[in-house]
Amino acid sequence: MNKNTILVTVAALVGLGLGATVMRDQVPVSLAQQTGSTAKSTAAAAASAVQKEAGARLQNETNTIDIVKRYEPGLVYISTEQTVQADPYAQMMFGQGGAQVQEGVGSGFFVNAAGDILTNYHVVQDADKITIRVQNQTKTYAATVIGRAPQYDLALIRSSTLPKNLIRPIPLGDSSALAVGQKAIAMGAPFGFDFSVTEGIVSSTQRRIPIGFSTNGQGINQNAIQTDAAINPGNSGGPLLNSAGQVIGINTQIISPSGSQSGTGQSAGVGFAIPINAAKTLLPRLQAAKGGVVTAPVLGITAGLIGFQNGAGGTQQIAVGLGELRDEAKQQYKLPNSGLVIATVLPNTPASRAGLKGGTSTQQFQGGQISLGGDVITKVNGQPIDTLEDLQSYLIDKRQGDTITLTVVRGGKSRNVKVTLDASAFSN
Hints:
Elements: H1 3-25, H2 36-55, H3 59-71, E1 75-84, H4 88-94, E2 100-110, E3 117-119, H5 121-124, E4 129-134, E5 141-149, E6 154-158, E7 183-188, E8 196-211, E9 220-227, E10 239-241, E11 247-254, H6 257-262, E12 271-275, H7 276-287, E13 301-303, E14 305-311, E15 314-319, H8 327-332, E16 340-345, H9 350-353, E17 361-365, E18 368-372, E19 376-380, E20 383-384, H10 388-395, E21 403-410, E22 413-420
Antiparallel strand pairs: 1-2, 1-4, 2-3, 3-6, 4-5, 5-6, 7-8, 7-10, 8-9, 9-12, 10-11, 11-12, 13-16, 14-15, 14-18, 16-19, 17-18, 19-20, 19-21, 21-22
Pfam families: PDZ_2 (PF13180), Trypsin_2 (PF13365)
EC number: 3.4.21.-
Organism: Deinococcus sonorensis
């Protein structure tokens, strides 16, 4: 921080302090111009008004205060450390060698009496050391990852040394029952200010944005809750509560126009939370993961349109959709304008039981290859798709036993195929 920044900060703090003093005094200027009984009467009336105002709380304020008192002890402050090896080139040329430790902070909350803590995957991603602290405690406790779900940006952690009396689960609500305009309370550690609370409303219940991390690094579109409750870096993984004190979402992302300029994100009144129903569906699998990775349900297919890219590590293969293929090529191979080409169908999977078919031949072209002769998935439940990520986005909130309808094109002919997600879709 430079000298000018320090001066501006001090000035801002002083200004706020002076403002608080003036507001606290509550002395009308007109009293200085009054004398005798009139002044005394006006002063008494002003004092009475102040007392009444101080003693009267709005119903919304009372509700918020009650929720914070009851459930903020279930909030968890998370600190992480990651050892990063120095750049060998920088070490050789500039003498900047050795490993460096990167620190991070985030939030989480207890979901059960066993001490399981739900947070964002990106909060604990690649962390070598995780410590937690609960409200009104100075002692920190080591924690380990029980399960990771990168595609959902969710993770479950637990501390084996945390005293049982410090575990305060927050009840989980029903995000499917949300209404736009209802109250939303965000808890977390914005910018490292642990155990902070902000309030707003639910701005949207069906905002589809890229959340989580797919195998090729692209986000997977899924439904999110939009809120104007202030969410900032450090709030990640913290709970979003309703007026009943139930968790309705897990704070995960913000839109920050200033962040795109400065590289440091900050709230612009548009924040997003992962619906709690998605997390509730995932919890049993996270608890049984034994530190491993939990993925979205799968159909048992591989993508059949592959693009080749040259990178630092050599040639990389990336699955793409038909929308990336030239029109001339699609016409030549009698393919639809967009869709997910199937290369192979794995045995004993939902796809094989539904009768989907993989390619029978492979055609090489400049920059990639394509499987021909099999099925191309163009829609899921009537919604167009083009890539594997598109397909995953429609599977991500599905449960065992759910059935989806695929629109499939083979040999220029379109048909609908029903696929049931059995146990094999959740084999991980």
